[in-house]
Design brief:
Two copies of one chain form a homodimer. Chain A has helices at 11-23, 28-39, 43-56, 76-91, 96-106, 111-127, and strands spanning 26-27, 59-62, 66-72. With 128 residues, chain A is mainly α. The first copy, chain A, has two domains: 11-76, Arc Repressor Mutant, subunit A (Orthogonal Bundle); 95-128, no CATH class. Chain A binds chain B through residues 14, 18, 76-77, 79-81, 83-85, 87-88, 90-92, 96-109, 111, 113-114, 116-118, 120-121, 124-125, 128, and chain B through 14, 18, 76-77, 79-81, 83-85, 87-88, 90-92, 96-109, 111, 113-114, 116-118, 120-121, 124-125, 128. Chain A binds a DNA duplex (30 and 30 nucleotides) through helix 1 and helix 3.
Amino acid sequence: MRELGSTQPTAVELEILRILWEMEPCPVRDIHARLSEAKGTNYSTTVKMLSVMLNKGLVTRNEKATPHLYRAAITRHKAAKKFLGELVEKVYDGSVMSLVLQALSSGKVSKDEIDEVRKLLDEMEGKQ
Amino acid sequence: MRELGSTQPTAVELEILRILWEMEPCPVRDIHARLSEAKGTNYSTTVKMLSVMLNKGLVTRNEKATPHLYRAAITRHKAAKKFLGELVEKVYDGSVMSLVLQALSSGKVSKDEIDEVRKLLDEMEGKQ
DNA sequence: TTGCGGTAGCGAAGCCTTTCGCTATACTCG
DNA sequence: CGAGTATAGCGAAAGGCTTCGCTACCGCAA
């Protein structure tokens, strides 16, 4: 088994992680039910993907007690942070602000959400 | 040649696009100089990648006049927007705000930049 | 116990990305 | 021109991700 985090989850792997974040711990059966809904792939494929992900350290399970129940090895929060960092690095040349400005200007954002961001900005300024 | 944008650029493709965004139009030679600096790959590899990308519609060139000069087929801005949209969709479940909040709270951001975001927020509110 | 439906796993095939060896073309300088 | 160097291109190999067929296992009912 490789080091956790040595590789980024691929597209399908991310889909599986998202399912786990929502329903873990979770038997293959349930993961497959959700996955095949969107992709129509075979049950064997889901099993294999989980075995690959287990090998990569992307998911875990209790080998002794419940080897059929899978969990995500990283939290949604951590994964998000990692993806975000990579995006900033690779596309925005390390500028978090460029990303934030583009995200804000391109998205539909409610007044409440705008206020929430203001509050966060105030807090950040206070700490400086 | 496939439709532009039918596929996301892969890792190496993105590296090449970044080089082009900085120096286009650009002969293979120069692209390779930059690419091999970071990766140490063969000249043939760079040529092939460009031919693949040309085929995918990720880069362009003037076939008649200057077939040796390559350009990116999408602007940095558009590519960024696409990546961002995908990240929001896949990892933040479509919530732009979740992403913005996480980006702000995880990055080093200067006071000027904070003010810049405030200004943008004000503008957005004005339009609603 | 035996047969059966539901579950898990392995190895190999298929596809896409990335790499490079070999060939072809163009360019320069004696 | 003609040899040698720089540049471009193609096809095939290598490697990784995704898919599935076939096999193995487990628990339950006849």
